[in-house]
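ENTRY TYPE: paired fold submission
RECORD: A
CONTENT: sequence, then C-alpha cells
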Amino acid sequence: MTLAEIREADAPLETAAIYGRLREAYGLPLVNLIWRHFAALPGVLPWAWETVAPAMPMLPAATQRVAAALEPLPRLAMADDAAALATLYNRGNLSNLILLTALLRGKLGDAQAPAAPPPAMLPEPPPLPRLDALPEPVARAVRALAAMHGHEGGVVPTLYLHLAHWPALLPPLYASLSPLMATGRIQTLRDTALAAASIEADALRPYLAAPVEPSAEALVAARAALRSFTSRVIPEMVVIGSMLSPTSVIDSILS
C-alpha cells in the first residue's frame, strides 16, 4: 500500500490549476508528494494552498537560513543528471519544511508580505516513474531506500522514485546512506534542520491566511500527514537531498 495521491498527469481541472500555482510559486517544474496527497483529501488542497500562498514571498530568505544551519555537509557522489535532480528536490523540501510547519501550527498575528517575483523555474526533470511499473529489481531498490526511514502509511519519498531513472545508482546510494541512518548521523542533521525550520515557520505564521477549513474528517487526516511529513519525512529528505547536491545547500537553492 502506498500513500494516496493525485499525480499531476491525473489531476482534474481545479486540482491542476492549484498545481500550476504551486509550480510557479516554488519555481519548480513538479509538485511534491505532500501536495499530491493533499489533493486526495476532500477540500484539503485548496485550503492548504490558500492558507500559505500569502507567505510565499518570504520563503527564499527563510530557506537560505535553514540551509546555512546544515553546512558543512558530507557529499555523496552522483551522476550529473541525478545530482541535478537532487538539487531540484532540495528547493522543494526546504521550502515545504518551513511552510508546512507554519501551516500545521496555524495563523498567529496579522502581517502582509512584501510583493516579490517568484524564483526562476528550475529545469524540467525526466517524468516521474510509477513504482508499480518499474522492473521488480529497481522497485525493490526504491522500496529498500524508503524502508530505511521507517515511515508509516506507505510513504515512498519521491526523490528515490525519481532516481529510478538511474537504477545503477540505487544500490550504492543505499550502501552509503544505511550506515548514516544506523549511526544516527542523518537523524542528528534532521534535528538541526527541524530546529532551524521551526524558527522560520513561526516567523511566517503572521503572513498566513485563514480560509474556510475542509471537513473535520479531512482536516484530521491533513494534520496527521503534516505531522508525519514535517517531523520526519521532509527533514530527512532535506538532509539526504543536500548530501546528493554537488554544491552547498545554499547554492542548490539559489541556482
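RECORD: B
CONTENT: sequence, then C-alpha cells
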Amino acid sequence: MEKLSNISNIKSILSRHGFTFSKSLGQNFLINPSVCPRMAAECGAGAGVGVIEIGPGIGVLTCELARLADKVVSVELDKRLIPVLDETLAEFDNVKIINDDALKVDFHKLIEDEFKGMSVCICANLPYYITSPVIMRLLELKLPIQAITVMVQKEAAQRICAEVGTRQSSALTVAVNYYAKAQLLFNVSSGSFMPAPKVDSAVIRLNINKTPPVYVTDEELLFKIIKAAFGQRRKTLSNSLGAGLNIEKTKLNAMLESSGIPANYRAEQLTLQNFASLCNEMTGEG
C-alpha cells in the first residue's frame, strides 16, 4: 500500500478500523518515509533471506522488508492491529502475521517452520519499555540468525553500543557483548513517529557472535555476577558483589585478587574478560 508514511492516510486507515493508540503498549508508529527503507536494507534483508519482524505496527517497515526479503514473519501483540495489517499488507504474498507476544514466542520452532533453507535476521521497532527484555531473550535463545536490528530509545542505543569497561557501559552492554557485536547505525528524530515520543531513537544492529569472545564454565553465574556488579554500580566490587551474591567479603576479595581485579574497582571498569575470569575463579576453573 502506498503512502503509509502519510499522516492523513494513516489516520484514515486507523479510523476505519476503530483503532486508538495504547500507551501501555508503547505504540509509536513510524511515519518518516526515509527511515524504513534504510532500516530494511541495513538489517540484512535480501534474496535468500527470511526476516522475523517484531511489532509491525501498521506495516510501514514490513512493506520495505517484504520488498527485499524472500519472506517476512511479523509478530504483533495487539490483536486490534491484525485487520489493519491485513489491509496495509494485502499486496504482499510473502508476509505472514502472527498475533503473539515476542516474550513468549517459540522462535526456534518459528524459524524451523517458516524459514527452511534461508538465512534469517530479526528486525524490530521496539517499544521502549520492553527493549532490554526482548533483546536479552533473543540473544539468550541462541537462535540460528545472522543479526538483530532494532530501533530503540537513543540513550539505550548509546548504552548498548558503549565500549565495555567505560563509564557509559551497563549490565546490558556487557551481556550483549557476550553474544554479539553491537553497532550504532543511525539516529531517528522523535518527529519520525506518530504519536511523537518525548525522546529521539536510534537504530542498532547486533551482529551475532559465532562463538562467545570469552570462555566461561558457567554462563548463568556469569550473568549473575554482571547483574550484581551493576546492581549497585556506584559501590566498589567488594561491596556490590558481596551484597548481590551473598559472598563473605574476605573470600570475595581473594577471588578478585586471583582474577587480577582490584577490589576497589567498580563494575563499569571491568572488561568482559575480567567478568569471565572472575566467573571461572568462582567455579574453581580460574
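NOTES ON RECORD B: Residues 219-282 form a domain with the Helicase, Ruva Protein; domain 3 fold (CATH 1.10.8.100). The chain has a mean pLDDT of 92.
STATUS: closed
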